[in-house]
Write the structure tokens for this entry.
Amino acid sequence: MHGALEEDRLYVATDILILTVRDGRLCLLLSRRVDPPYAGRWALPGTFIGLDESAETAAKRLLAEMLPIQRAFLEQLFTFTDVNRDPRGRVISVAYLVVVPWERLKELMAEKDARFRCCQIAMDGNGLSLTDDWGGALIPGDLAFDHGRIIETGILRLRGKIDYTDIGFRFLNDPRAFSLGELQTVFEAVLGEPLDSSNFRRAIMSRYEKTGRLTQTDQAGRRGRGRPAALYRFNL
Amino acid sequence: MHGALEEDRLYVATDILILTVRDGRLCLLLSRRVDPPYAGRWALPGTFIGLDESAETAAKRLLAEMLPIQRAFLEQLFTFTDVNRDPRGRVISVAYLVVVPWERLKELMAEKDARFRCCQIAMDGNGLSLTDDWGGALIPGDLAFDHGRIIETGILRLRGKIDYTDIGFRFLNDPRAFSLGELQTVFEAVLGEPLDSSNFRRAIMSRYEKTGRLTQTDQAGRRGRGRPAALYRFNL
DNA sequence: CCAAAAGTGTTGGTCGTACACCCATGC
DNA sequence: GCATGGGTGTACGACCAACACTTTTGG
């Protein structure tokens, strides 16, 4: 489509930051680039925006091409416009933040194993760190373009919003039957720190129970060793 | 520069939302359009982004062309990309939020009176409302392009950030000598509701005094009738 | 001119809510 | 071992009350 970019033009692309929580770890979907620039390097999935689609439409189109998912959470993250962010020419990127349950993403990972990878991400005072499934560390500076910055921006946004929006529930494999322990695991993975389960339970309940969005089901889960957890249902 | 836009190209512009607090009211700088489309209608100041500048650079350039201000607060707000938002062709807009003290903005308003106007804005459950200096109501739907939506987005962002960033202090005419009453007026204008002065004082103090960013001066202000207020200094 | 009233700034207390931290109990 | 619930101390906002300092008002 854009084999060579013209010099006197400005192009607009979308990159999507697909996040999930797997085994209590915050993870991110990376795609290996096949063409230059940055051939062979890891990058966020991206696409150019067509003349007949909005940035959000383009992001949803790209997501749909990769995942058989409807109704995934998707919101605009930030627009990156540095003049030299793409060696091909002048390309700005409207980045989107996407949240997907791991059970859905797993299906994709099984198929297109070579091109995609789901990396653990962590961020503390020392900055970003990426770890693949076999414990190998990935240098954030090796990512294509300015995608390291995009990822940092996304994690900070996610952490800022998880306490006063329902974005945490979007990570749940089944919002119609989950335990508060699972939900707490999501919050801990996103925030990068352990939480007090007693306070967590009270906070979630006081925020959502009175509105009727969160209701307790009559079932109990038998997932682990200990006492079966009560299962809840959340209306997204 | 862009007398006619080509059909097969995508253009990128910047619109800036310049906010201030005047006489306890949140106000917004609007510019009257002279050329089509929307000739004669009110709009946010905007410009196209050049090939050699980032969106932020373009926004700062536009701001500098209008106001003799350095160091104004400026941050990216949102990127609006609807396909039909501009009748001339495909133009997306990276909107920026700017905060300017009224004393600075007043100087501009005195000069270029005809083209610019400083409107009071309010937003509640019924949506946005705009009022000019003589009490005339301005219909938000009469604004050019999708600028009504941009304004709403900006106010919501501002309200969300005022409690955990220093953005409120950017409205102060003189951050080196202000009373807590003045600061409270800013917060009330932004939030659109009155605050308890006792709690406000405690909250501001506990947040900033220990860090040393907010210090009490030895002066006292003599601005009004009542007891002179203690003056404070904030390090931006 | 002086005293009282009104207006604004400043400090303090109470009460309920929510969170941090710890502990007890059920399965 | 994990889920669930309770209890205590602390921090903060809503609401209220009192006091400090100045201008305005009314004799």
Notes: The domain at 10-161 of chain A is CATH 3.90.79.10 (Nucleoside Triphosphate Pyrophosphohydrolase). Residues 36 and 88 of chain A are 9 Å apart (CA to CA).
